[in-house]
Amino acid sequence: MSGFGQLRLEGVGRRFGTADALAGLDLTIERGEFIALLGPSGCGKSTALNCLAGLLPLTAGSIWQDEQRIDTLPPEKRGFGMVFQNYALFPHLTVRDNIAFGLRMRRLPKDEVRRRTTAAIEMVRLEEHASKLPGQLSGGQQQRVAIARATVLEPSLVLMDEPLSNLDAKLRLEMRTEIRRLHQSLGLTTVYVTHDQEEALSMADRLVVMREGRVQQIGTPEEVHTTPTTWHVADFMGYRNLLPLAAQSVAGEVVTVPLGGTTIDGVAQGTVAAGEDVVVAVRPEDVKLGNEGLKGLVEVVEYQGRELAVEVVLEDGTRLHARTERKVQAGESVSVAIDPTRLLVYASDRPAAELVTAGLAV
Amino acid sequence: MSQTASWQHRLAERGVDRRLWLLLPATVFVLLLFIYPFLYGLSLSFQPLKGGGALANYQKFFNDAYQRDTIATTLKIALPAALLNVLAAVPIAFRMRGRFRGKRLLTTVLVVPITLGTVLTAQGLLNYLGPTGWFNRILMAVHLIDDPIRLTNNYWGVFFSLIITGFPFAFLLVLSYLSGIDPTLERAAATLGASRAQRFRRITLPLLAPGLATTFLLTFVLAFSVFPSAVLVGNPAGSTRVISLAAYQAAYEQYDYAYASAIAMIMGVVELVVVAIVLLWRSRLYTGSTGGKG
């Protein structure tokens, strides 16, 4: 059961009534990879996971484990482990029995069940809680039981559906490291669903960014972080400054756009032609407060520890989100400079007026 | 002023505040319509009409085989009927979980018998299952049988009547217990390699069992006090001479209220014994959260 070379999803789709929750998903998962499915709620990432687990039948495409077609198998025949968002621990069974459940379903010898269960309990450091019921555990402990239960079978693939979303911020950071550590030490192949881009970037080997049931971009964390393929991905990856503008001139990769009463250069992502509507994306971290550049007024200041998050209104009324270590106050006049290599210019897929109503900065 | 305020505060913490008055109607109701008649009946049962000591009525009941056997007769009808109601409700409720087209219509059809009342049900049973009813006529027409099968005016008539009136209760209760179980648990069990049967046996059934016990008790208590159908579709002189019938005859045919009270008390004790046994079994089950929203 355990171990495969690769898992291939070919044109996988799931339709609910007339709505495509997931369409045309092509993805090859190599053994040992940690893949994050990332996107806002309703983007189809959980649907994709449930299709992989066998909990939702496909309406299009196929799933292959090496040369074997598996999308026709019921979940109990696939041998994948799954961690659910609400943990889904069996409330009437103790921690030990929860973890042993899958081993017992395989009818393994009693000694082996005991040995492997004990090892799994030690692995997630729940020795003192082994005979408690799930209801007597904290959220973090319940999550560890859920992970131990899914991994004790040494499944060929572990599926995790937003497993950390019910935990508080501190615990979430700890569990992140814990899951990554288990993934490496057990040599697992993991598909991890999340809407938290930071979580996905820090844990995964490869990211699959999704939107409205379709894949937007597949790439390493660095690729997705530095060069999003569409402005939607950029939006999701923390490019808070998204400006609908018109390209003034294009020279090779360099696009010049009007901003703040003057012009500014950026890098074209895909093909951009002069005079076309574009969306310009830049992270707050790449908007620097300095002595030269675009003139503006500080409007809002948020304290964020080492830095301040600042909202600056330029002379033409454009709002820019910036970060600075300088102590500034609301109402202060400042200049902002943007690194031209970090200003990404995308061809717009909609008219500018529509983008403005879609909530993009003016 | 502040003294009284803190005093009220401390009372409120122990649950004593003005909202306590909301319990008044229920308390009065229970006192007047249950506790008082019960105690009155209890004391009456110890005052036999013809003398002979406080326990004379009870001795009379247990010394008379014709009377004593009503306990067994009633249990023989009520226990299997309650059990069948619960067992039949489980698969149907199991199938009816979740949303699907026509669910409301199907639920209505299943629940309608509650509104019929015993007399209408009895009427229907006589028409349908009686010696000249459709059921027997169809069986005879296709030559499966030569003589009508007796399904009314005996044990089976009462049994069917109890199923028809008791099943909707059992179904509604089991459905609500089942909806309270988080469906993700079964999905989790599936990903751990449990087959459909194993998922039911290991996950759903243990979580549902306390609810089934409660459902069994409610339908049992309803069935144990069976009276109209025992007369209308049963054989009230023989195989369906249930205990409530014995109490009725004592009270309204022999006008011996004290004896009738004693029979009613015995009826209550028998029910309590069954309830106690089932609750004892239930207390050994897991009865905590089942993860659902029900």
UniProtKB/TrEMBL annotation, chain A:
PROSITE patterns: ABC_TRANSPORTER_1 (PS00211), ABC_TRANSPORTER_2 (PS50893). Keywords: ATP-binding, Nucleotide-binding, Transport. GO terms for molecular function: ABC-type transporter activity; ATP binding; ATP hydrolysis activity. The keyword Ligase does not apply. GO terms for cellular component: ATP-binding cassette (ABC) transporter complex. Gene3D superfamilies: 2.40.50.100, Nucleic acid-binding proteins (2.40.50.140), P-loop containing nucleotide triphosphate hydrolases (3.40.50.300). Residues 7-237 form the ABC transporter domain. PANTHER family: SPERMIDINE/PUTRESCINE IMPORT ATP-BINDING PROTEIN POTA, SPERMIDINE_PUTRESCINE IMPORT ATP-BINDING PROTEIN POTA. This is ABC transporter ATP-binding protein.
From TrEMBL, chain B:
This is Sugar ABC transporter permease. The keyword tRNA processing does not apply. SUPFAM superfamilies: MetI-like. PROSITE patterns: ABC_TM1. The keyword Transport applies. Keywords: Cell membrane, Membrane, Transmembrane, Transmembrane helix, Transport. Residues 71-278 form the ABC transmembrane type-1 domain. Its main location: membrane. One of its GO terms (cellular component) is plasma membrane. The chain crosses the membrane at residues 20-39, 77-94, 106-126, 155-178, 205-227, 257-281. Gene3D superfamilies: MetI-like (1.10.3720.10). InterPro entries: MetI-like, MetI-like_sf. Signal peptide: none annotated.
